[in-house]
UniProtKB/TrEMBL annotation:
It comes from the Bacteria. This is Restriction endonuclease type IV Mrr domain-containing protein.
């Protein structure tokens, strides 16, 4: 349904769009499209200390799947740029020949391959913020739907409990966490914020990164952890525990990555 809109993106913008999508998925961009790797159509993205060479292909005219010939020497390029992973970011699909090659790279060369094709892009678009989408699409309001969207939906920031920085902003997501703090009276508080602000208070073994729990599967595990903590024998919870837990859940919905995308972690 957004297919036509996707093919109206210019090749140059396709790379910027790739950067925004990867950022949305929790990656940081080590080398962006403006700096250009090789012929300028590639980038380098990082996640959990792993470097990925990103190959952006936008066959908007032919709409033909990317084949082996269009994607030469993957292994050499990955090694040359000090990466251990490879991401396809295509506005089409891949031919079966290329898919076989990617499987072989995974199995035989232990290159971590992440395949993002048109269908994946169309799945992820609805979870993205309208202000990002409006850079690329004419009707972002029809695309930027997310779980909370209804007519009076308004973006609600989630502030670090210490410094009041909005930890949902894309540049802050990878630097933020949620955890528990047990005070001197053995009362447990739910705390979230920038790592540098709240890390030192997390004196319970359980904590999670905001960049992690934005994946719905991870959020479900985090909910189990919260359930476990609150049902500990003789636990004493702070009065605002459930208030902050509700704030957190409501806020994370705004940046939640849909089901199935958890495999990128
Ligand atoms: Zn902070």
């Amino acid at each position: 349904m957004y297919k036509e809109d996707i093919y109206e993106i210019t090749p140059n913008n396709w790379e910027w769009f790739a950067q925004d999508v990867l950022f949305h998925l929790g990656f940081s961009i080590a080398v962006g499209p403006s700096e250009g790797v090789d012929d300028g159509s590639d980038m380098i993205a990082e996640l959990d200390g792993k470097r990925y060479l990103v190959s952006c292909k936008h066959n908007y005219k032919t709409r033909k799947n990317v084949g082996v010939r269009e994607e030469c020497d993957i292994q050499d390029r990955v090694v040359q740029h000090d990466c251990t992973g490879f991401i396809t970011f295509y506005s089409v699909g891949a031919t079966s020949g290329l898919k076989r090659k990617l499987i072989a790279l995974k199995d035989k060369a232990s290159i971590d391959v992440i395949e993002i094709y048109l269908d994946n892009v169309m799945d992820i678009i609805p979870s993205m913020q309208g202000y990002i989408l409006q850079k690329y699409f004419k009707r972002p309001q029809e695309m930027g739907r997310n779980l909370l969207s209804h007519t009076d939906f308004e973006y609600k920031p989630l502030f670090c409990m210490k410094c009041k920085l909005d930890i949902l902003k894309k540049e802050n997501v990878p630097r933020s966490l949620v955890g528990f703090y047990e005070d001197s009276e053995k009362i447990i508080h739910l705390i979230y914020g920038c790592k540098k602000c709240v890390n030192k208070y997390c004196n319970d073994p359980y904590w999670a990164e905001i960049g992690q729990i934005r994946y719905i599967e991870q959020m479900l595990s985090w909910r189990e952890i919260v359930d476990e903590v609150v049902s500990r024998p003789e636990v004493k919870l702070s009065e605002d525990f459930y208030k902050y837990w509700a704030f957190l859940q409501e806020a994370i919905l705004q940046i939640q990555v849909p089901q199935g995308w958890g495999r990128w972690l």
